[in-house]
Design goal:
The protein has 21 helices and 23 strands. Helix 3 packs across helix 4, helix 6 packs antiparallel against helix 8 and helix 15 packs across helix 16.
Amino acid sequence: MSTTFTYDVVVIGAGHAGCEAASAAARMGAKTCLVTMDMNKIAQMSCNPAVGGIAKGQIVREVDALGGGMGLVTDATAIQFRMLNRSKGPAMWSPRAQCDRTRFIAAWRHRLENTENLYIWQDEAAEVLTEGGVVTGVRTVWGATLLARCVVVTAGTFLRGLMHVGRRQVPGGRCAEPAANYLTESLEALGLRSARMKTGTPVRIDKRSVHLDEMEEQPGETDYHRFSYISPLRPLPQLPCWTCETNAEVHAVLRGGLADSPLYNGQIQSIGPRYCPSIETKIVTFPDRDHHPLFLEPEGLDTNELYLNGFSSSLPMDVQIEALKKMPCFRDIRVYRPGYAIEYDFFDPTQLHHTLETKKIDGLFLAGQVNGTTGYEEAAGQGIVAGINAALKCSGGAPFTLGRDEAYIGVLIDDLVTKGVDEPYRMFTSRAEYRILLRQDNADMRLTPHAIRLGLCGEERRTRFEEKKRRIGEIMDFCRTFPIKAPRINPFLERIGTTPLQGGCKLFDLINRPQVSLHNLAGEIEDFRHFLAQITSDAEETIEAAEIEMKYHGYIARERALADKMQRLEDIKIRGRFDYASITQLSTEARQKLAAIDPETLAQAGRIPGVSPSDISVLLVLLGR
């Protein structure tokens, strides 16, 4: 006889998607159970213990603005922070942090264990239970039955996971952790289509064996930037990273091991990430290059373990070590473990609605790497959306979705459910049409109102958000109305190398110049300096956000107009209105793709690969538009 527990929401898997999903659902009032195979590996950073990066940093700030936990935990455990893309305009800046792996896990576990309505069950989910096409719960390998109205699957790389080092294969979801061998079969029996993907991770190195003095040190930054809009300053000491390069001797050793590479001997058939290739793929793809950059990054404050970014590999371990020893800085290298590749099951994301609920099974949601994505940040973004919608479904609320003009998370989910994946999906700024609208500095202005409405915004966050919004408006109003006379400001303009004024203008007009900032203007204009001094809460971030809004106001207005124009097609709902197979005016490919995906709106239909503008015109005619 099995033991039975009753919940509103069950979340399977406590990785980055699962943590956000369970936390969001519980905080919205749903009685939630988080199922994990190992409570000591909650929010494990399976690869590099780093959060953020280009486009990924924007996603983390969006998760934070929605009331999620990744930004808070990252700030609390960061041991090196950097704002990437500083050489470009501030609209393209992206935060990234190297974290203390052990402290990151501990911080997330503490957060989850102290969340009201959230319960943790250590076990392996074996079967999703349904009745009449509706989820009823989960059965575990230990025989527990977890009844629920909604189930969120966030199993990461564990579904029939298989690790590769050279010709050796070991079942597992991560190094030294067992695979989940039953859940895929259960989901396939419910009608969901699965396939295989692969990813990899680099060798881990003992810091004591590295000649760090022969590498280039890369310090972090210690200014006011952070991931969460409500975090205090980072509490941990900031550590350096180091950079170096491979050489021709390294490449020769690697080439000599290719016959035993599971990527090239036919052992691995699944699809891997094109944008984050293994070191052996780099030397095959770019045979004329005699060097590739590597980044040596710390794993924590209290460990000598280092992560070698850029050297992901599944070659035999002796080949990996021999190749590294050809680099002067690694000539005495000792490693903790070799790099390895891992294959795992995922499910075609075109089987999902934008809420991340499956189309086939009512109440079943999928989020994270099981949807064909890669990256902690992409997982967290999906997790919080799935958790929110599971809670809303339990309470009878309207579904929650994000548009492509609202968030990178909206772009991510729309790409997944509309286009599907033919390789592990990673977010890039180039995937977003409206990236000037979707900046890291304004994620709170875009998304915190949703968090307030959903009940995911605490009193501190609400207060600070409203204060910041008010102050940004006041700064912009001051600049729009404050007059500047040419004789007064021209000496300053000439000193910083920009064209002097021919006549008077408003302060706002000067902000558009790249050489001009609010801070250097405040140094010249006493009234403005006194005005800015009144901002005491999140002053630097508030001033920066106001400045970016003013510098980009023309571009922002233009993108907003484009987004509003596209919204007219987003407002035309077409799901269930057509029998696509019978519309002979559509191309054969369009009929097949539209029938398979059954898009929600006309705009989504237009984003499906193989659906042309003329096909959209046909649908508009049939709609009588």
